[in-house]
């Protein structure tokens, strides 16, 4: 069977299974099975698949029909122009989170903290673009931290990035001029409405804290001031309905210059805030 024939059959299978973007996913999975870059698929469509490639492609399509995310099948995801390893132990890096990274890079920083680092995509993307900076990524999941450490090694950032198992600020010392987080923020009653790729395959603890989805923001708002240098910045990804609530938490904690940034669909997605130059009630 040629790659073209296998691709046509795979698209039909995915379409019948009501998989969104069936042609796109089939091409990405074919590239994975053939060991080529996705943008090279068209050049190799006349090629015959060997038995190993055919078996790998069939297994990948079966996984996708089971609603397993493409990134978990291939083991990688592009984020901010770089490739990150992902597994079922990590949140899949999303384009919306790139808005948080871009905002962080609008000003220089020397020492950053990434809370709930997952794959390390936020921390490592920021450090790669800021050669003089160092940073710490924390996560409750030891498995996720192992993935993040591997990504740091692959990107040549092991000398500037370190990782620590921690529950938000527990055990974290020192001061940072930048704190970022994409915390779990899906409310408990919203979980059922998520796509199967997210709800059934990504780590629940990275998606929701339960309840109203705001517990992580409460913890970060309460603890960030003690870990920020005067004038330090805080950046958070939020759900599209959470801007007012999170703004209120940060303002009550003493943060200034709170700003909401939209995503490409004009939904509220990122909140930026500044710790006062003279410190505040949370400084320590």
From TrEMBL:
Question: What EC number(s) does the entry state?
Answer: 2.1.1.297
Is S-adenosyl-L-methionine among the key words of this record?
Answer: yes
List residues binding S-adenosyl-L-methionine: 116-120, 139, 168, 182
Q: Where does substrate bind?
A: 182-185
Q: Which UniProt keywords apply?
A: Methyltransferase, S-adenosyl-L-methionine, Transferase
Residue ranges of domain Release factor glutamine methyltransferase N-terminal in the record: 5-75
Gene3D superfamilies from the entry?
A: DNA helicase RuvA subunit, C-terminal domain, Vaccinia Virus protein VP39
Is the Nucleotide-binding keyword given for this protein? no
Gene Ontology MF terms: nucleic acid binding; peptide chain release factor N(5)-glutamine methyltransferase activity
The EC class name is: transferase
Pfam family for this entry, one:
MTS
Q: Where is the Methyltransferase small domain?
A: 97-190
HAMAP family per record: RF_methyltr_PrmC
Q: Which PANTHER family match?
A: HEMK METHYLTRANSFERASE, MTRF1L RELEASE FACTOR GLUTAMINE METHYLTRANSFERASE
Q: What is known about what this protein does?
A: Methylates the class 1 translation termination release factors RF1/PrfA and RF2/PrfB on the glutamine residue of the universally conserved GGQ motif.
Q: What is this protein called?
A: Release factor glutamine methyltransferase
What organism is the protein native to?
Albidovulum denitrificans
Which gene codes for it?
Answer: prmC
């Amino acid at each position: 069977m040629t790659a073209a024939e296998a691709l046509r059959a795979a698209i039909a299978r995915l379409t019948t299974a009501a998989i969104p973007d069936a042609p796109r996913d089939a091409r990405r999975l074919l590239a994975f099975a053939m060991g080529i870059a996705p943008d090279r698929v068209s050049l190799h469509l006349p090629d015959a698949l060997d038995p190993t490639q055919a078996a790998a492609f069939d297994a990948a399509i079966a996984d996708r029909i089971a609603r397993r995310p493409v990134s978990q099948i291939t083991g990688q995801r592009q984020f901010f122009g770089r490739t990150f390893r992902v597994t079922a132990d990590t949140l899949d890096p999303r384009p919306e989170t790139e808005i948080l990274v871009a905002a962080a890079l609008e000003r220089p920083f020397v020492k950053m903290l990434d809370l709930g680092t997952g794959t390390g995509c936020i921390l490592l993307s920021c450090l790669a673009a800021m050669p003089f900076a160092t940073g710490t990524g924390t996560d409750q999941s030891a498995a996720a931290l192992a993935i993040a450490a591997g990504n740091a090694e692959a990107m040549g950032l092991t000398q500037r990035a370190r990782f620590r198992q921690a529950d938000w600020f527990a055990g974290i010392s020192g001061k940072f001029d930048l704190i970022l987080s994409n915390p779990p923020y899906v409310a408990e009653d919203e979980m059922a409405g998520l796509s199967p790729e997210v709800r059934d395959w990504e780590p629940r603890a990275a998606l929701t804290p339960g309840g109203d989805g705001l517990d992580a923001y409460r913890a970060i708002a309460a603890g960030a001031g003690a870990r920020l240098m005067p004038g330090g910045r805080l950046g958070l990804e939020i759900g599209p309905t959470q801007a007012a609530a999170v703004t209120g938490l940060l303002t009550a904690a003493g943060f200034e210059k709170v700003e909401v940034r939209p995503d490409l669909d004009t939904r509220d997605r990122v909140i930026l805030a500044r710790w006062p130059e003279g410190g505040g009630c949370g400084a320590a």
